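#onboarding

Welcome to the new folks! Below is a worked example of what a typical request in this channel looks like: someone posts a single protein sequence, and someone else replies with the predicted structure as tokens. Don't worry about understanding the tokens yet, we'll cover that in week two.

Example request:
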Amino acid sequence: MILVSTLLLGNDDRPPVKYDYLSKPNVQHFIGMMHTRYGFDTDYLKRVFRHARLDRDTLARYTGTFKKNSTVGSWERFKLHVVNPKTFKEARIFKRTHYKTLQKAARKFDVDMDYIVGFIGVESHFGNYTGDYNVLDALATLAFHKNRMQRFFKNELKHLFLFAREKQYDITHLQGSFAGAMGCVQQVPSVARKFSFDFDGDGASIWDIEDCIGSIARFMHHKGWRRGKTVAVAANYPKKRFNRLRTGFKTHYTLATLHKNGITPNAPFPYKTASLIKLHNSTHDELWLGAPNFRVLTAYNASSNYGMAIHKIASALKD
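Example response:
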């Protein structure tokens, strides 16, 4: 998914409330665009917007001063909810249960099955939690109320209408995350339309585990995953906290530069350059060197914490 599940962030107790979307000029413009460009019935669009509510919880996450980790979990939260022995045990059970499908997807798309498991573990706790927000409410709120990602969410609302029509779903009943992500790999509507995949022959469904396995494998292949290649390597640093260099999956350092700054990999790192990943624990910083495959993980969600959570689940399957 583009944004981390509410499993990490929780849900406040303010329910969505009634709101007159049809009184907003930008909603009327949207209705006209969807009718003219995509052939939607105007009366249908108006009925949908009469049903849509204002989700104040969702809006609060994207307004005001941006707060780090407000929509992407901190590393401590990942450890509490996802990267822990319970999840590792569940990942092993999931791998055994769905081994044939995972093997088929890994071979078809030339990717590593343990990372498919990692994706599904982080996104929906292996299909057990796919979100309890009304997707129409969330996306209508974010599309038509000022926030830092309003343009993105207006586009996702458009794709929600198209997705619901293509799948013959009742758009008013779809559930997902506060950001409108749905299914066992938490795809926003545009991603669901692009990467959903029928992997079991009964029609593509973003809520079907077998299709989700095929979908995430297809995504990994599309983004350039290199099967069997290094993803990330833990690194040593002599102090508990690290602030000497900028960190994150977008960074790009030579190994010589990292060595000059006291950073040495714990295992052979087969590339001349690396991204420098820092995980902030309560007592110390944890440093990792990211390889090109790590960037594929963060292409699904632009967060180093997110990528490392997938990597740690996948690594636990090899232990």
